[in-house]
Specification:
single chain, 138 residues, mainly alpha, 5 helices
C-alpha cells in the first residue's frame, strides 16, 4: 500500500509521459476482463444452461472487447472512447433485456475506463510536446 497521499486510484496522476502511458495501458485490463467473463459465461451456457439468456452470439461482443483492449493497449484515443460507449451500451442493453446490469462493478469499470481515456489523451499531448521540443533542439 502506498504511503503517498497524492496517489488516488479513482483519479490517478497523469502529469508525466510515463504515468499517462501506464494509466492508459493499464485500463486495457477492463475490456480483457469483460471479454474473458463473456467467453466463460457463453461456454458455461453452451455446455450446461444459459446464464441470463446469453447465447453463443455473445462471442461477437467478446471479440469486439478483445479488439478494444488491443486498441487501448496501443493507446488509441478513438478506440478508448468508442470502447467506453460500447461498454455503456452493452450495460444498458443487458439492463433492458435481462434486467441485469449497472452494478457497482460496472460503475468502477467506467471510472477506470474514463481514467484510461484521460491517460491516452494526456499521453499523446505530452508525446507531441516532447517531439516538438526534440525537433527544436536538433
Amino acid at each position: 500500500m502506498s504511503t503517498d497521499k497524492s496517489e488516488n486510484m479513482f483519479w490517478p496522476d497523469i502529469s508525466t509521459l510515463e504515468k499517462a502511458e501506464g494509466v492508459a495501458k493499464g485500463s486495457c485490463g477492463i475490456p480483457i476482463f469483460v471479454a474473458s467473463i463473456t467467453i466463460l459465461v457463453v461456454l458455461y451456457g453452451y455446455f450446461f444452461s444459459p446464464i441470463l439468456g446469453i447465447t453463443p452470439w455473445a462471442l461477437i461482443d467478446a471479440s469486439i472487447f478483445g479488439l478494444i483492449a488491443y486498441g487501448m493497449f496501443r493507446i488509441n484515443r478513438l478506440v478508448s472512447v468508442l470502447g467506453l460507449f460500447f461498454y455503456i451500451w452493452s450495460q444498458v442493453d443487458m439492463l433492458t433485456t435481462q434486467g441485469a446490469g449497472f452494478s457497482v462493478l460496472a460503475v468502477f469499470f467506467m471510472i477506470f475506463w474514463f481514467n484510461g481515456i484521460r491517460g491516452a489523451f494526456k499521453y499523446h499531448k505530452l508525446k507531441k510536446q516532447a517531439d516538438s521540443v526534440e525537433q527544436v533542439t536538433t
